[in-house]
Amino acid sequence: MPRIQAIGIAVAAMIGAIGPAFGQAPPAPTPAPSPPPFATTKVDGTDNVYVFRYQNHQAMFVVTPAGVIATDPISYGRPQTAQTYIAEIQKITKAPIKYLIYSHHHYDHIAGGKPFKDAGATVIAHRRAKERLAALKGRDVVVPDQIVDQKRTIKLGGTTLELIYTGRNHSDSSLVMFLPKERLIFAVDFNALGAVPSRLAVNDSYPVEWEESLKRTLALNWDRQIPGHPGPGGGRLGTKKDMEEQLAFMTELSAEVKKASDAGKCFDPATKDVRLPNRATLQGYEQNIEWNVHRWCGYWGRGI
Ligand SMILES: [Zn+2]
Questions:
Q1: Rounded (5°) CA angle 276-277-282
Q2: Which of 16, 21, 55, 193 is the most buried (most CB within 10 A)?
Q3: How far is the CA of 1 from the centre of ligand 1 (A)?
């Protein structure tokens, strides 16, 4: 045993022996501080762009003299979130909420829009989001009033916001919300910042087309991305480098799974065997890689 370690053990034993003599309970370990349930943050370098976070979901809103453009109500399973979101907006401005724009059709991002609609907002989403939501009739889900097909520009109180469809990726209804002056995008669930997409992120997804969508999104003139989840590193904004890393991960995943599929290895043993050691430093790699291989095996091996 190294000498320093031996001394350490001896000292620890002495403290252990002394502690009870003083009748003191050992100090309780300090719990890690948990973040507040919600927060509103102005995006650095902008005049009027904010991120509203509630627990692990985020939405962007833009404040203009003529009204507010809000996005994703993020109220799934917690209806109080929309009220909190609106109250946070109203701390900044009394201007009306003119728009509520859905990033895509998944409920965890867009359930709970009724208080926005009641406040007079027009609800906008991609055409397929409206079709799906109208058919699903989900609880607490407001069906969009208006649609976007490939592109739509919203101008309000001096702000220009472009709603751009860059193709199927994590869903078939994802809109990139692009602020050209601020060189910012709000993009949800199809670019995990420095992480492997989760099981839920690949469930309803479009391999290969996802890569094309990333390329089209990368071609837009932006520097920073507001993500729909705070992501690794606690709430930073995304960069093109993150998106390039996501694209590289998917390109490699797709090529490796295709090889396994051509060798008759999908789903088994590919889901256990196909691994991307170059990408193992991405957050969530261990937990999620098998699900990603499974989804891509479905695509290459079964045409689904
Ligand atoms: Zn989603």
A1: 85
A2: 193
A3: 53
Distances (CA, A) of 100 to 40, 67, 82, 183, 297: 17, 11, 11, 21, 37
- Which of the 8 DSSP states describes residue 195? B
| β-strand pairing of 57-64 with 67-71 | antiparallel
Q: Distance from the CA of 12 to the center of ligand 1, in angstroms?
A: 50
Question: How many whole angstroms separate alpha carbon 81 and alpha carbon 255?
Answer: 41
pTM for this entry: 0.88
Which residue shows structure tokens 């699900």?
291
Going residue by residue through the chain, which has 304 residues, state the pLDDT in tens, using 9 for 90 and above.
444 444 444 444 444 444 444 445 566 667 666 778 999 999 999 999 999 999 999 999 999 999 999 999 999 999 999 999 999 999 999 999 999 999 999 999 999 999 999 999 999 999 999 999 999 999 999 999 999 999 999 999 999 999 999 999 999 999 999 999 999 999 999 998 989 999 989 999 999 999 999 999 999 999 999 999 997 767 899 999 999 999 999 999 999 999 999 999 999 999 999 999 999 999 999 999 999 999 999 999 999 9
| Ligand 1 centre distance from Cα of residue 105 (Å) | 7
Instruction: Show me where the domains of the chain are located.
Output: 37-189, 191-221+239-304
Cα–Cα–Cα angle for 149, 210, 203, nearest 5°?
A: 100
Helix, strand, or coil (residue 13): helix
Distance CA 283, CA 91 (A): 35
Instruction: Tell how far the Cα of 4 is from the centroid of ligand 1, in angstroms.
Output: 52
Q: Which two tokens stand for residue 254?
A: 């797709």
37-189 has CATH 3.40.50.150 classification: no
Q: How far is the CA of 58 from the centre of ligand 1 (A)?
A: 12
**Helix, strand or coil, per DSSP, at residue 238:** strand
Q: Is the dihedral of CA 113, 114, 116, 122 positive or negative?
A: positive
Got the DSSP string for 81-102? HHHHHHHHHHHH--S-EEEEE-
